[in-house]
Amino acid sequence: MPPTGSIQIAGGADYTNNAQVTIQINATDRGWGVSSMAIWNAGERSSGWQSYSESVSWTLPAGDGPKTVYASFRDAAGNTSEIVSDTIVLDTTRPVAKAPTVSLPAGSTLGTSKIPVRVAWSATDANGIGSYLVQMSTYDGSAWSAWSTIYRGGATSTTKHLAPGTYRFRVQATDRAGNESAFASSPITTVAAVQENSSAISYSSGWKRTARTGAYGGYVKYHTQAGATATLRFRGRSVSLVTPKAASLGKAEIRVDGVRAAIVDLYASSTQARKVVYTKAWSSSGSHTVTVKVLGTSGRPRVDIDAFVILR
Ligand SMILES: [Ca+2]
Ligand SMILES: [Ca+2]
């Protein structure tokens, strides 16, 4: 009876980033015992018969891609086993990470002081990404803080609850073979909240300011007549409208840079505070206006403005 056996490259891993690997060998023979083995790379000649051992260090052929290693075993009587093999993908190429993006999606809910900013990232690699490391640094007006880790894992976005302020984010990707990308950094992002009573908002006549439970900063401005407008002038690359939603609230038209962009309905059967009801984003920062126009919805004409959030 010839010996039987198997081999495992790098403990059976699917990927390696190093052509130098350890091959584990497990062969048995009834009667004579395994005395020797031969190992070779696909496309190369066998190294010849050598003494059997349960582990050898081995060099895979250069160049990224799948690598198959073959082995055969021989017993003391000269019986030779069938050829066995194992395959691993050699990947020595770093992934390429893309700069994280920062957004405030419509449908989000502001905290009482913090803003739920969504940070998203990606990377490319021929063999796929194993994990990401995402870090954040904060500007205090004179210096940037040290990078702190806000996410580690396989997902491609996270939501970070941030006080208004200035931030930057960076991501490093690790591929399935363990190669790390360079860090890719987001643009510096300022998260700014504009309260309903800011001088940056021009109101048509008749808007009233009132305390409202749950409002961002405790107050909203509201109007109940069709045609009333509130216009925010700002510089940024994203603007969001924050309002309550309630059974008593109606519809408003949103105009961006003078052009009708959406109709939002502030109705909800149960009251919700600090909802992001509309967001518009651009690829770079610029000067824009956003106008909220009350539409005079029958039975629930009131429209509230709680705040705007600007990313720039
Ligand atoms: Ca790679
Ligand atoms: Ca407010």
Automatic annotation (TrEMBL):
UniProt cross-references to InterPro entries, sorted A to Z: FN3_dom (IPR003961), FN3_sf (IPR036116), Ig-like_bact (IPR022038), Ig-like_fold (IPR013783)
Ig-like domain location: 161-187
UniProt-recorded name of the protein: Ig-like domain-containing protein
Organism for this UniProt entry: Thermobaculum terrenum (strain ATCC BAA-798 / CCMEE 7001 / YNP1)
